[in-house]
Write a structure and sequence with these properties.
Blueprint (H helix, E strand, L loop, with lengths): L1 H13 L2 E4 L2 E4 L3 E6 L2 H4 L2 H6 L4 E6 L6 H6 L4 E5 H9 L5 E8 L3 E5 L15 E6 L4 H12 L8 E6 L2 H10 L4 E5 L2 H8 L4 E5 H8 L8 E6 H6 L1 H20 L1 H10 L6 H7 L5 E5 H18 L18
Parallel strand pairs: 3-4, 3-5, 8-9, 8-10
Antiparallel strand pairs: 1-2, 5-12, 6-12, 6-13, 7-10, 7-11
Helix pairs in contact: 6-9, 7-8, 8-13, 11-12, 12-13
Length: about 325
């Protein structure tokens, strides 16, 4: 009797696949998790036109995604690239990196009179505020300052706030003069305070430091079991996601409506400004690997803990 009940329960709640002609067919939506920032923005068209195929869950913190990746609660996720390396090295899940989905999204915001290029910070004694201490924003800023001969504590003082939102509120209110922020916080700030401008593009400055290598800040990861059992679905997702990214980047006005609709960005006017600065992309294969290998090497030299203590092996990359 217990066996019979167990079979019924499994059929009702646990059986998610049929076998047709020797291949497995998924009988549920593909589960995707992403942060609400640029990676979430890249999913807007997919959410609009493929909602019957994909269940997209948007969250505000990587901490909300990590347990889902480890437990297998999601099939695909968009996360910070260094977090993918940390999880891989710490054994946090059995996944692979499919590709880069967001490049550099860091900018300095302030009044135009505050800074005249990165070189003007030398001997300036100015205070730069940033969020993301112990994470990508800190490492990126430090490398740029070092390359330009600018010393924190001597030429400038860098101070950190724990949350992007808190920093955005302070710079928008005029409490501080310059802030390093990611999109879409940058566009939100500029919308609130028209006196502020983007005074420094950290992505361009990074490329000057590292010989035109771009800054791969966000990646798509897939559960290895899901990818192995659903090869055709995985290929379809990659096409659908690429189409979504292309739509967002090439149809900013229409895409901004979707941002507001799905509460990715609360105001479509802000979305119009944010989308071009979000560096949305879907870089896969060898190009993705080269970008990430270089980035992981830089982070490892700066602070091995930033990528989990060691450089990831080639097994971290998804192979089609």
């Amino acid at each position: 009797m217990r066996v019979f009940i167990l079979v019924i329960i499994l059929c009702l709640f646990g059986c998610s696949r049929d076998v047709q002609n020797g291949s497995e067919v998924l009988n549920r939506k593909v589960r995707i998790a992403s942060l609400v920032g640029p990676t979430g923005m890249s999913l807007a068209e997919l959410m609009e036109n493929h909602g019957d195929e994909y269940a997209v869950h948007l969250v505000t913190s990587p901490d909300q995604v990590i347990p889902q990746i480890i437990s297998g609660g999601v099939d695909i996720a968009m996360i910070p690239s260094n977090l993918a390396a940390v999880l891989y090295n710490k054994g946090g899940g059995n996944f692979s990196i499919v590709g880069v989905c967001a490049k550099g999204v860091l900018y300095a915001v302030g009044k135009e009179s505050f800074i005249d290029g990165i070189a003007s910070l030398k001997n300036s004694k100015k205070i730069i505020y940033s969020s993301g201490q112990g994470a990508t924003p800190e490492y990126v800023l430090n490398e740029i300052l070092k390359f330009n001969g600018i010393k924190d504590g001597a030429d400038v003082t860098v101070r950190y706030l724990p949350q992007h939102a808190d920093l955005a509120n302070q710079i928008a209110s005029g409490t501080i003069e310059m802030a390093i922020l990611p999109e879409p916080f940058v566009s939100t700030v500029l919308h609130k305070n028209k006196e502020l401008k983007v005074v420094l593009d950290l992505n361009k400055e990074w490329k000057k430091v590292f010989w035109e290598n771009e800054l791969p800040m966000g990646v798509v990861v897939v559960q290895n079991k899901f990818a192995a059992e659903n090869v055709d679905l995985m290929e379809k997702f990659m096409v659908d996601f690429q189409n979504s990214v292309d739509f967002i980047t090439n149809n900013v006005e229409e895409a901004s409506v979707l941002m507001e609709k799905f509460d990715i960005i609360s105001n479509k006017e802000i979305a119009v400004e944010a989308i071009p600065r979000c560096a949305l992309c879907f870089v896969t294969g060898e190009k993705s690997r080269k970008l990430l290998d270089h980035y992981f090497e830089v982070l490892y030299k700066v602070n091995p803990k930033a990528i989990g203590g060691q450089l990831p092996g080639e097994e971290i990359y998804y192979k089609r």
